[in-house]
Design a protein that fits this description.
Elements: E1 11-15, E2 34-45, E3 52-65, E4 68-79, E5 86-96, E6 102-111, E7 114-128, E8 131-142, E9 145-157, E10 162-171, E11 176-188, E12 191-201, E13 206-217, E14 223-232, E15 237-248, E16 254-262, E17 267-277, E18 283-290, E19 299-308, E20 314-323, E21 328-342, E22 354-358, E23 367-370, E24 377-384, E25 389-396, E26 399-402, E27 409-417, E28 420-429
Antiparallel strand pairs: 1-22, 2-3, 2-21, 3-4, 4-5, 5-6, 6-7, 7-8, 8-9, 9-10, 10-11, 11-12, 12-13, 13-14, 14-15, 15-16, 16-17, 17-18, 18-19, 19-20, 20-21, 23-26, 24-25, 24-27, 27-28
């Protein structure tokens, strides 16, 4: 693509902006930044081989809405062994309303060398005096035409706690929504106490009690137990079916998670999750074990390990699954995560100014005038949405620098003075 070589000046207008620093009490004073997950590289365990093989990748794009980055696209590609290439798989595109809330998402599959839309997800919001109603609907494509499939209506209180959820399924012959289930939640001091589910009987057109969950907490508000019950219409009472028992450490993180079922004679442990954390509270290992009954030993069924960057973002994860044939853990998957780190600083401080570019969008990007004071050292960094550094420049202000020819798209400009980020700008380049 050829660009016009017109020289222009980018004017910087400063407005106050506040960047919230990360505040992890386990890892004090981390750098201030925005981390965007750009890409996940997926691997699978090869047959009779200890090495992991490339299986696919997921790429994410973002849109800046009301000052917040929202994930606008998910693109999944599958890797064709043994030497590729990558093949289109799934595309999920999202749009947002004027408040930055999810509005519409469209899922498509790559079929017969074209994107074939399969699912449309839409959300609408209604506010009332003491809360909000959120409607979600999924439509599907069948035989080339779109039809409703399922929808949910959530009612939230003024604290955005979910009070009820009504689920309905679309009946094509009747061309009408038919209720399916209703979930009601009760809270005590902001903590979920009882969750009741009802199921809809089409034959009687009435609601029937179905399941119930009862939550118990420690004195400091950490979930300690969830009891699951099933309604027995014959005796008109709830009967226990299973329960989850959580044991937290001093930091409130779940060390063990035990699942027990009621076998008619008491509680019988059937599944166990054991977690290990690093000094920042990130889970670095999870071991899942099962056992057939109380007379058998625990058997490990999977082991998950995760690794993180200094900012708490997961950069690599690996899972090994149990192979019942030879009683080993040879099968597994792995994922490598790659991020863009936007607006980094070395100290926890308020950023006083944000740079706005005039004109914006622009048709070419050749020269930029920097507003640094005379003799002040500066550093300029220009990155794209993938986090790739297009330009890194160090100098003494004031000055003008030439920028390389760029493809159309969105770029981010970081201006750093005395090792402190003082300006950021979003640049949109069009043809």
């Amino acid at each position: 693509m050829q660009y016009r070589h017109t020289v222009f000046t980018i004017l910087l207008v400063f407005l106050p902006v506040f960047i919230q620093a990360q505040n992890n009490p386990l890892c004090p004073n981390p750098p201030e930044l925005i981390s965007l997950l750009d890409q996940e590289i997926c691997y699978r365990k090869g047959p009779q081989d200890t090495a992991f093989l490339l299986s696919g990748r997921i790429t994410y794009d973002y849109e800046l809405v009301n000052g917040e980055f929202k994930r606008s696209q998910l693109f999944r590609e599958n890797y064709l062994p043994p030497n590729g290439p990558f093949q289109n798989g799934i595309l999920l595109e999202s749009q947002f309303d004027m408040f930055g809330r999810d509005s519409i998402s469209l899922r498509s599959f790559w079929i017969n060398n074209q994107w074939d839309s399969t699912n449309l997800y839409s959300q609408t919001y209604q506010s009332f005096a003491n809360g909000e109603i959120l409607d979600r609907q999924e439509d599907i494509w069948q035989n080339g035409s779109r039809s409703p499939f399922i929808r949910e209506r959530d009612t939230l209180d003024s604290n955005e706690q979910l009070l009820s959820r009504l689920t309905e399924n679309w009946d094509s012959p009747l061309q009408d929504w038919i209720p399916s289930s209703l979930e009601r939640r009760q809270y005590n001091n902001g903590l979920l106490e009882v969750l009741t589910r009802l199921s809809y009987q089409v034959s009687t057109q009435s609601w029937m009690l179905d399941k119930r969950e009862i939550y118990t907490y420690t004195s400091n508000g950490i979930n300690a137990r969830i009891e699951f019950e099933q309604w027995d219409d014959a005796i008109q009472a709830y009967l226990p079916t299973s329960r989850h028992i959580f044991v937290a450490n001093a930091l409130g993180l779940i060390d063990t998670f035990l699942i027990e079922q009621d076998n008619g004679n008491g509680w019988e442990p059937i599944a166990l999750e054991e977690n290990t954390y690093d000094s920042c509270g990130n889970r670095i290992e999870r071991i899942l074990s099962n056992r057939v009954n109380a007379n058998t030993a625990w058997e490990v069924v999977s082991i998950d390990s995760a690794f993180y960057d200094p900012y708490g973002n997961q950069v690599y994860a690996i899972t090994y699954n149990w192979d019942v044939r030879d009683k080993t853990l040879p099968q597994g998957t792995a994922v490598s995560c790659h991020y863009s780190y936007l607006i980094p600083t070395q100290t926890r401080k308020k950023i006083e100014r944000e740079a706005f570019v005039i004109p914006n969008p622009v048709h070419s990007l050749q020269r930029i005038q920097l507003p640094f004071q005379q003799g002040i050292p500066f550093r300029l960094s220009l990155v794209d949405l993938k986090g790739r550094h297009i330009l890194d420049k160090v100098g003494i202000g004031p000055t003008e620098i030439s920028l390389p020819s760029l493809s159309k798209g969105i770029y981010f400009l970081r201006l750093i003075e005395n090792d402190q980020l003082i300006q950021t700008a979003k640049l949109q380049l069009i043809e």
